[in-house]
């Protein structure tokens, strides 16, 4: 090759196509493909025995109080899950979903966010509500749709939502929360620019690896990346989308590889290691607020120990022994317990006390909620619009007359205010 | 941007101004004021001519000026000034934080704007056409319309979805569908369909201010038409309340209830009826599909005894069907003859011009059916 030709080749070695500015030319033809050998590594701090793996690094910067709170929150959720799963089996509530095996992802990530950071959940993140201060009574009010339910008995069980705790109401349609989170992050960014003295916020968004097959996931990641939205996409990869195992859900290196594809800072973390989840979320939050803001994708790996929901029997598509193996092998609760025991912070008697106390409190709230009245009947019609419409008023009047004429046919004693609950609020101004 | 244009050949065609399109069968219609459609000077009375496009633009600009929570997002709304130039100049005026170009992903940007609304902003989400909003209909119905209710009233969703809807010209089945009935059937949504420039400005401003999610179903073929704007409508406080229909033409012999572009066609048909049969038709422009002004319809039917619904959607389960059902429920005793509907044909909109013409109501068809109903 002459000098002249070499020079020409050198000068055009990299291309400036608008769609790939730094792509280099090559004359070797090969297709790119992620292989199992170069799968993205999974970050962890603790091993399965709860020991710190890399002793050379500073120990996790976390107070004993917080460590205990995180542990108690995980245990409380797991106990409530068992009780409420049974309650559904007994026909006391219509539906339930447990988070067994995934408590660490919810609680660990929530512990690195401020309480003002808005959250969008899927449905297997009871831990975030627990961490932000939901009491057993708060959970039971929603599960039994009592008069104290802030969402007025309008949603299925486990579709919690709380304005006070900055957690948006849960939507059953899969993955819709992901673009919402990107949009809320954009709003938060604008609001924080308008109020520079306030502490800056990010938005956290949870979803499963199955939901990541929905178009909304792809749309949301692309738009969050291009609009630089400060949002943490937290994927719980628990191995199953109802009955579909990940092997049939996707090819390629999990959900994490997609984040990289969208130009999003991405990390994979061991979801059974709550300290790793906490640390990763803390760093992701810093990253999301850096410079002009950006989204971050966290793929938290775990195993769905439970059935998908009370409507599912997972032993129809996976061996019971596999589940039992996982339960024994690894679990976010036992791993943190082992770590705390090694630090002299926990022992069997404290464990027993915590479990019996949590159980007692949950059952108390359960029994109370079960007897509690449902929201007043007028709640059936309010909030369809910001203000009650004339048609709704007419319909409520007719309903009231009907109920009053046939009291034996319409027993409203289980609803707050009985038949006087058939009253719509007055005309609101503005 | 180049890619976007290549991917949407039909939308590209739609971008050129209506008058530049070779097929004019639909343009000859509509505004009685169309004779002066290119003039925009003020008249002695203070009324001004304005296109529907400019009225929509003015509505958004005024609301963005008034409230910094309002922003516009959609495909090509910023740099390109909007596929139909409705957002022209907004980027220069309000900057890229409030006039935002989205990647091509209706479910994504509709979801993003719903999320922004749930977080307290007041987004205006532009769809290049409502045909493409089918990709995002889950976000509009399951998320925007239901969240306020399902959250127990704690999460208002103040969002405006807007864009052209209904029949267009020469763009085939996937670009010419009317979604009035689809959105009109959803509790939690409000739905309006402007006809004139005043409608466009007043209804869009009301939609942006309304705390509920609102679909503003515009029509592409109306964008370039000019209408008189009253002094009142020129004010930046002008809004049209939802659920109030407008009598565009008073009459005593037959009530024609219609919406969007069919209002213009019905007005022309009314003139035909008058000159040919001496019949006075009352033309009601619904303006708002949900809530619907039943009172206005009943009042008119009491006077005329004859009712005809005119719309461009498919016949089954449509706006016309709803209007006739309501008339039967509330005004049956005042009817002298069974009510009828004139609608689009029960076929996906054909591309070939002559077939397309036959797939939608024409002025003559409306007049003929009215004459048949009146037995004149």
TrEMBL record, chain A:
InterPro entries named in the record: Alpha-ketoacid_DH_E1_comp (IPR050771), DH_E1 (IPR001017), THDP-binding (IPR029061)
Enzyme class: oxidoreductase
The Dehydrogenase E1 component domain, residue ranges: 72-376
GO MF term list: branched-chain 2-oxo acid dehydrogenase activity; metal ion binding
Biological processes per GO annotation: branched-chain amino acid catabolic process
Gene Ontology cellular component terms for the protein in this record: mitochondrial matrix
Keyword Mitochondrion: yes
Cellular location(s): Mitochondrion matrix
EC number per UniProt: 1.2.4.4
Keywords linked to the UniProt accession: Metal-binding, Mitochondrion, Oxidoreductase, Potassium, Thiamine pyrophosphate, Transit peptide
Keyword match Mitochondrion: yes
Cofactor(s) the protein needs: thiamine diphosphate
SUPFAM superfamilies assigned to the protein according to its UniProt record, in alphabetical order: Thiamin diphosphate-binding fold (THDP-binding)
Reactions that this protein is recorded to catalyse: N(6)-[(R)-lipoyl]-L-lysyl-[protein] + 3-methyl-2-oxobutanoate + H(+) = N(6)-[(R)-S(8)-2-methylpropanoyldihydrolipoyl]-L-lysyl-[protein] + CO2
Main location: mitochondrion
Family as reported in the entry's similarity comment: Belongs to the BCKDHA family.
Biological role stated in the UniProt entry: The branched-chain alpha-keto dehydrogenase complex catalyzes the overall conversion of alpha-keto acids to acyl-CoA and CO(2). It contains multiple copies of three enzymatic components: branched-chain alpha-keto acid decarboxylase (E1), lipoamide acyltransferase (E2) and lipoamide dehydrogenase (E3).
Protein name (database record): 2-oxoisovalerate dehydrogenase subunit alpha
Source species: Meristemomyces frigidus
From TrEMBL, chain B:
The entry's keywords: Metal-binding, Mitochondrion, Oxidoreductase, Potassium, Pyruvate, Thiamine pyrophosphate, Transit peptide
EC number: 1.2.4.1
Start and end residues of each Transketolase-like pyrimidine-binding domain: 50-225
Origin: domain of life: Eukaryota
One GO cellular component term noted in the UniProt record for this chain: mitochondrion
Cofactor(s) for this UniProt protein: thiamine diphosphate
Protein name in UniProt: Pyruvate dehydrogenase E1 component subunit beta
GO molecular function: metal ion binding; pyruvate dehydrogenase (acetyl-transferring) activity
